Prior knowledge:
Blueprint: H1 13-25, E1 29-37, E2 40-47, E3 50-57, H2 64-73, H3 84-100, E4 107-115, E5 119-127, E6 133-140, H4 147-151, H5 173-188, E7 196-204, E8 210-218, E9 224-232, H6 238-245, E10 251-252, H7 255-271, E11 278-286, E12 291-299, E13 305-312, H8 319-323, H9 336-348, E14 352-361, E15 368-377, E16 381-390, E17 394-403, E18 412-419, E19 423-432, E20 441-452, E21 462-475, E22 480-494, H10 500-509, E23 521-535, E24 546-556, E25 564-576, E26 584-596, E27 618-619, E28 627-632, E29 646-653, E30 658-668, E31 681-693, H11 701-705, E32 718-729, E33 732-743, E34 750-751, E35 753-757
Parallel strand pairs: 3-5, 6-8, 9-12, 13-15
Antiparallel strand pairs: 1-2, 4-5, 7-8, 9-10, 11-12, 14-15, 16-17, 17-18, 18-19, 19-20, 20-21, 21-22, 22-23, 23-24, 24-25, 25-26, 26-30, 27-34, 28-29, 30-31, 31-32, 32-33, 33-35
Helix pairs in contact: 6-7
Amino acid sequence: xxxxxxxxxxxxxxxxxKAIRALFxxxxxxxxxxxxxxxxxIIRVKEYPTIYKITFVGNKTITTEKLKENLEMSHxxxxxxxxxxxLSSIExxxxxxxxxxGKYNAKVKVISTPLSYNxxxxxxxxxxxxxxxxxQINIIGNKAFSSKQLLSCFQLxxxxxxWNIFNNSNYYRETLVRDLKxxxxxxxxxxxxxxxxxxxxxxxxxDKRKIYITVHITEGEQYKVIGVIIKSNTTEYYAKIEKLTxxxxxxxxxxxxxxxxENDIKNILNxxxxxYPHVVIYPEINNVNKxxxxxxxxxxxxRYYVHNVRFEGHTISKDAILRREMRQMEGTWFSGDLxxxxxxxxxxxxxxxxxxxxxxxxxxxxxxxDVIYQIKERNTGTFNFSIGYGTExxxxxxxxxxxxxxxxxxxxxxxxxxxxxxxTYAEFSMTDPYVTIDGVSLGGRLFYNNFKANKADLSDYTNxxxxxxxxxxxxxxxxxxxxxxxGYLYNDIANxxxxxxxxxxxxxxxxxxxxxDKHDVSCCDFTFNYGWTFNGLDRTFFSRHGTYSNLNxxxxxxxxxxSFYKITLDIRHYIPINHERTWxxxxxxxxxxxxxxxxxxxxxxxNFYVGGSSxxxxxxxxxxxxxxxxxxxxxxxxxxxxxxxxVSKSNDAIGxxxxxxxxxxxxxxxxxxxxxxxxxxxxxxxxxxGTVWDSKWQNNAQTISAGIPDYSDPNNIRISVGMSIxxxxxxxxxxxxxxxxxxxxxxxxLEQFQFNIGSTW
Length: 761
């Protein structure tokens, strides 16, 4: 502490006053006395009590963490001295926080309890009351646009209908400020350059339950841009910049387009190494002719080299794993495009909740900077063990251990198992995305499956299979990757219940079976697997814009018991509707086709199935499409010309060799959800449509008389509408959906509420 009095000084009234002021200014003392004892100066002080404990009671709307932040801003924390003036001030500030969210009946009281050793406990007691509701929002002074058009810019609403779960009539001061900015932007984007908000008034009824908001505006008149004058300290990029500005001339003044062009010019210069360009557009207004001439002032600044690329915030991922995703190299010209690509690639790994890029000049240099990626890691490992019961599967036991970033190496490792009434499944898989420095990946999996179709609403048979696959991936470009691989699959089929489609497959192999033939059939297949992926998404989980396409196929190779091929194409496209990307349209489609070659057919156990949470929601998993046509009696097969076989219709699904699925989904903000969970929970409304068919199916007199439809018809499309909630839980991605079928067919089995553990889109 710097007192204005030192040993040897002469004491007078002036420096005594200065000393007292200096001591009081510390805020630690409530009483100070200066006494003289001969040549000694005695300073006697009485300290304010220090805070020992802070508690909160009654706060529900505002979290304790938020309240603590407000206290910190007022320097009220444990161990700090406090006086009555500070407590009175913080009471008013907290009261104002409640007023800002429309709780005008809220009461805040601070209770201080003295303790020994000059300490106190502080207890903040809250009576929050009810939120005041917006009764009406009035805009006065508008002539060019209706009040309804202008209020569409507002998030605040008055008298919201009971069924509208996305809007409410609660008042928030910060939201009103944003709404008025949106209103201003609405006019500036339509040429009203002199638009002004003259005043805003928030009025309360006497009972403080209803709020009336009145906004007075002056629209002014529309102005047209008659030209753009570019002034720059370099002519190197003049052509590109001039091309960008063409959209401004001879059109109404548009502030948003102008700001976008400013940003686009900065991006051009960033890409060329100019990390801190100065770009400003000045409007020169002619109020007589109602025109605007835009002057574009560009100063590129210095061109920068990248000194270091650094990473901060990671504790699990190794530095080398992050660095291999970089496209901006150290020691080269800075490129904003390459830096942003590095950010996108880090987001696509799925290892991180957020990635923020910071540019920092290197001290002592004129043309060097560091690029810093600030990273917040997410939990890439999940352990799941669950027991459940399903109407189709009975008692379920499921366990899995998945680590998408094994020991920070970037490798993905997964072990999973499933046991229910109709299936026992186990799999081990591992992928190294960077076997070479160029991004060549290597992956493989081992699996075992014991499947009892007769207990899964499918055609009667059992299939015990196991296999192994290895895949190598080659990066073709930034967004494209090619995959090639080999696989081996063994299938042991037993307990076969005669049905036409299955018998047709066996006949194509030369296994002409009869009704008394109960022995097992085993098949060994070697396959060449191939695939192509285009990933243009902004991030792996809960994408907001971009396109993702995935092509998968396989073909049997010599040495196999079967001769067939199979190919599937999946496409997802995200279109953000609003600037914040909280409203998004998602279009999804999937098509698949398979067939035998030579005289053989594709194995029935390779069929496509439709229905369930990942295809057409609202229908029981895999039950849409062709059904088994069972053969009865000890007769020769239909394929061999017998005439005593009886065809029996059933509801057991058998799938088909072709399918098509399409879905339109509107992703919306989740009602009543805190903003910090926006990247954890996602809500959407959807329309699903899909079908599966058997292109080899041929109806005859027997199948027609049995009432069996034409399963080769691809036009028998099922449609459903519904709502979905996805949650990135600590156990893994969870999806809940409720759907109502709009179009169904005889034999379809419905399941309107569905729950799924799996990937999110």
